[in-house]
Amino acid sequence: MKNKLFCLYTGLVCFMLIFAIFAPYIVPQDPFYSDIASSLQEPSAQHWFGTDKLGRDVFSRLLYGMRLSLFTAITIVFCIASIGSIMGAIAGYFGGKIEQVIMRLVDIMLAFPGIVLAIAIAGILGGSIGNAILALTIVGWAKYARMARSVTLKVCNEDYIAAAKVQGGTTFNIIKRHIFPNVLPLVVVTGAMDLGVMMVEVAGLSFLGFGAQPPTPEWGLMINDGRQYLQSSPYLMMFPGLAIFIVVSIFNLWSDALRDKMDPRQ
Amino acid sequence: MLTKTGRKTWLKKVVLASFATLMIGALAGCGSSDKVTQLANKDTLSVGVTNFADTLEPTENYFAWVVMRYGVGETLTKFDEKMNTTPWLAKEWFVSEDKMTWTFIIDEKAKFSNGRPVTAEAVKASIERSFAKAKRATTFFEYADIKADGQKLMITTKKTLPNLPGLIADPLFLIVDVQTEKEGRNFSKEGPIGTGPYAVKSFTKEKATMVKNEHYWNGEVPFKTVEIPSIDDPNTRALSLQSGDVNVAVNIAAADMVNFVGNDKFVVDEIASLRTVVARMNHKGLLADPKVRAAVISGSDRETYAKTLLKNTFIPGKAPIPPSLDYGFDQLKDPNTYSQERAKKLLEEAGWKDTNGNGIVDKDGKELTLNFVIYNSRAELPAYAEAVQADLKKIGIDIKIKTVDYNLIDKMGIDGDYDMLISNIVTANTGDPQLYLLGYWMTNVGGNNPQNGSGYSNPIYDEKMEQLQVEFNPAKRKQLIIELQQILLDDSAALFLGYPKTNLVSSKAVTGVKMLPSDYYWITNNIKPAK
After folding, report:
1. Which residue out of B305, B308, B394, B405 would a mutagenesis test of the A interface target, given it has the greatest number of A Cβ atoms within 10 Å?
2. Domain boundaries, chain B
3. How many Cβ pairs within 8 Å bridge chains A and B?
């Protein structure tokens, strides 16, 4: 049963990835082409999800938006997971002053409410999707560092590490052969769960104007654009909102299933 | 961590809770129609506004506008619907033979909200206070002397000023009781004592409460209390009016207008404003080439922006001064009317070609990418910018939109830190567009005209501007202003996108709501409960 669910969710995730990668070949219309004369049309056979204020095809923009959302979320998670686990492993393995410095830095980062700090950073750097990625990376890595450190501390006391040291294993090799494989599963599961979170946060920053800039088809930005037309053309907010909801749900379900599968206790 | 079953019950609760909220919302939505067309309390008016003021100290920043909008402050003179200067606290005025001394006769009925009479002496103190506390007072005029004699106020200016009665109508010169301030009232904290129909009871940036001025000199005051919540989000403002939470709302956005026009529960009072939405163009960077500037203007379909994108809440742009002011809008010739073909040709003539096939034209290995600086606290500005971006992409110009905070715009304009920069400008808040035409386009020599950060300079323009500054004859002034505008159009000086209409929308619960071209006469004693 568990395997079936996991396969289903993995299938859905792959399906989305394919959609995202091949979006340029799939979209029915150019997501950037504007024709103001046909603006704010309701959903129809020609424009499945209607058109926005500049007469652009909302469905095409949503597909392109998925591409961007997946790309940014994966980039951020990759960055924070790798920076965080390297820092955590170094702190845990070497201990002493290095650990003190790194872990206090982590404490500082975790003391701030994440999204507020990200808004501040993105605000100072100026709105762009690159800056949004940077801001969320700066805020996000600390959690992984703490996790990687605790795993490293546990592993370091194992007999096989002592054995490796006695046999003259270099620090680099010990981290690579023994510590890294122990940290990895936990990081992968946490990273998978963070994918959905990061998508929402990037959309949030874009909604506030700190992320993607027009004319980029980004879901948060599209919702903000549609806000003006809440009463007359509610679908402008509804479809990007639904898209975020569905994609984030799929990722959360998939990461849940992935965790259940990889959890060594079961 | 939650167990599987734990998670399920939790989920159930969330779903139930959200349904309950939805149902309550739906029920509350019913039965609101009476609330809209009838006042909940005959003595209380509620007005949904946008507010930028932190305090009601009239000399700080542009806060005097708010003091006036809220019905607290009044000036000596007032603009009518055609921007003529008409009497208010001053019942008449005249200028001396040498055109340097203006005499204003203050209405003897006039009283401050604390009951003190408004004498020429009090007016003098108030005007001197404005000059002492606000630096920008001198951008309107400089006086050599002010004399008070009974109800007669005499202002002698340093140079001849054809439009002094209009200048003195700016909210900065609204008349406050300086005597009470000397007696200890703090205008920033408690609000000023003015002469308007309402007096300040409490004020925060989020919400103001006004009470009836028991001593009002100019007619009946119909409401005991006026509640003025600040609702900066246009959507929320529209919804508050629809639900009956407020009886009047200012500046309903284009997208929400459909809910009010033709709805028999509401009255829409819309008027062409004195504002122009303009994209200033920097004459120093890539836009130094007049052909590129002409291409940018020619490539922007301003007719469609106003009609379709902004649903007729704007008038299509062409000249610096909107058609609501009588300065020859129809006789001005725009050499850059919309034509994509012409725009493309202009770019080609200027040497820009798409050599690498990426859709963006280039020259000497450099692509034609322009920074377009905007702010988004006015809903139409991003819409305009995105529409221009989309249109110019079709002729091969790449526009990068840079959204910044409103507070940065002014400085960026002065520093010339842009290729294009959007503004929504009041062209004639003194009833005359001289300051506007001078500030943005007269040659800036070593920072002597700081507002012109664009680098625009044309000696003929400067010469005509010098003439305008000393011309008293209205017909000649008009002619000069028309010529000045034509020069700007011929030079492709800037992209004039459109002219907003402003509106006050009210529910049928009240009558007498009227919008004037100057947007600082919002709350007056003409707003009354409907019979």
Report:
1. B308
2. 46-265+508-529, 275-501
3. 64
Q: Measured between alpha carbons, how far is B463 from B458 in angstroms, rounded to an integer?
A: 9
Task: Check residue A191 and give left, alpha or beta (phi > 0: left; psi -120 to 50: alpha).
Answer: alpha
**Over residues A243-251, mean pLDDT:** 94
| pTM exceeding 0.80 | no
What fold characterizes domain B275-501? Dipeptide-binding Protein; domain 3 (3.10.105)
- How does DSSP classify residue B196? S
CA A262, B2, B4: angle at the middle one, nearest 5?
70
Could you tell me the pLDDT band of residue B31, with boundaries at 50, 70 and 90?
Answer: very low
DSSP E strands in B368-437: the ranges are 369-374, 398-403, 420-426
Q: Judged by CB atoms within 8 Å, which residues 1-40 of A form the interface with B?
A: 32, 34, 36-37, 39
CATH no., domain A55-262:
1.10.3720.10
Helices (H) and strands (E) counted in chain A, each on its own, are 11, 0
Q: Which CATH superfamily is domain B46-265+508-529 in?
A: Periplasmic binding protein-like II (3.40.190.10)
For residue B91, is pLDDT > 60?
yes
Does any CB of chain A come closer than 8 Å to the CB of residue B96? no
Q: Given this model, what pLDDT does residue B18 score? A: 62
Q: Give residues 206 to 235 of A whose Cβ lies within 8 Å of B.
A: 209, 213-215, 227-233
Whole-angstrom distance, CA of residue A129 vs CA of residue A156: 40
Per-domain boundaries in chain A: 55-262
Rounded Cα–Cα distance for residues B25 and A60 (Å): 34
Residue A86 C-alpha, separation from nearest chain B C-alpha, in angstroms = 27
Proportion of chain A above pLDDT 90, given as a percent:
47
Q: What's the complex ipTM? A: 0.74
CA B386 to chain A, closest CA, distance in angstroms equals 7
Burial of A192 (0-12, 13-18, 19+ CB in 10 A): buried
Give the whole-angstrom CA distance, residue A244 versus residue A249: 8
**pLDDT tens-digit map of A65-77:** 999 999 999 999 9
**pLDDT, tens digit, for every residue of A24-39?**
888 888 888 888 888 8
* Three-state DSSP class for residue A224: helix
Q: Which two tokens stand for residue B185?
A: 């009232």
